[in-house]
Amino acid sequence: MNPFAPTFEKLPTSIPVFPLTGALLLPRARLPLNIFEPRYLAMVQDSLGGDRLIGMIQPVEPGAEGGGTGTAAAEPPLAGVGCCGRLTAFAETDDGRYLITLTGLCRFRVREEVSTMRGYRRVVADWSPFADDYTAPAEGGFDRTGLFDRLKPYFARRDLQVNWQALEGAPDEQLVSTLAMLCPFTPAEKQGLLEAEDFTARASMLLALIRMAVHESAAGGPLRH
Q1: Which pLDDT does position 70 carry in this prediction?
Q2: In terms of Cα–Cα distance, which of 16, 88, 90 is closest to 56?
Q3: Helix crossing, 172-182 with 144-157: angle to 10°?
Q4: Which one, 41, 110, 136, 169, has least CB within 10 Å?
Q5: pLDDT for 75
Q6: Alpha carbon distance 189, 3 (integer Å)
Q7: Which residues, given as ranges, of the chain have pLDDT below 50?
Q8: 210: part of which helix (H) or strand (E)?
């Protein structure tokens, strides 16, 4: 665990959240973000001056996260579960954007949304179901060979360039998290991967999604992802 990150017992009662359809953050994984909307620029500024914690969460209505500065009541509803990350890298651009990286810390359930004075959204977080997120899983416990056997046709069908050497050398959790975050799954599938009970369940779900996509492609169906 990063020595600058809070322990599980010291996670805050409430956190700011960044609603983004199709975005997935998982514990110990890194998510780069390009921040340009005024209210989320304010969120990053406030985070830098505080505990540097920001929650990533999907809005229930796909594509509804962009634009507007309406009240919380007028915003699209949030998914029930998100993942909190710690802001571990930060840069400014000449055109007024922030380039940040969040490192996943722990998932949370949304108890309620609370009002803020700076336009961005904030929730009361229930961390209690996810204490195990602070413990990295042991190596093994899933069909790594089977995953790679299906990854090759999956990426080839989508004409995606992959650094196979880096993937093959990645530890199990890093491999599964990277694929879960980067593969073009639907928002509902991303949410399912986030809410998987543990690493083994997430790895099994990832393999099933890739197997299904490869099967559909081989059968001549349209690409779902």
Answers
A1: 41
A2: 16
A3: 30
A4: 169
A5: 84
A6: 33
A7: 63-72, 222
A8: helix 199-218
> Per-residue pLDDT tens for 12-53?
999 999 999 999 999 999 999 999 999 999 999 999 999 999
Beta bridge partners of 124: 14, 112
Cα–Cα dist 28/176, whole Å: 12
Question: Which tokens is 207 given?
Answer: 């393999």
**48 near 91, Cβ under 8 Å?**
no
What is each CA distance from 17 to 21, 154, 223, in whole angstroms? 13, 32, 32
Task: Dihedral sign for Cα 160, 102, 85, 57, please.
Answer: negative
Give the long-range contacts of residues 143-148, CB within 8 A, separation 24 or more.
Answer: 143/207, 144/172, 144/175, 146/207, 147/175, 147/179, 147/203, 147/206, 147/207, 147/210
Residue 118: how many CB atoms within 10 A of its CB? 14
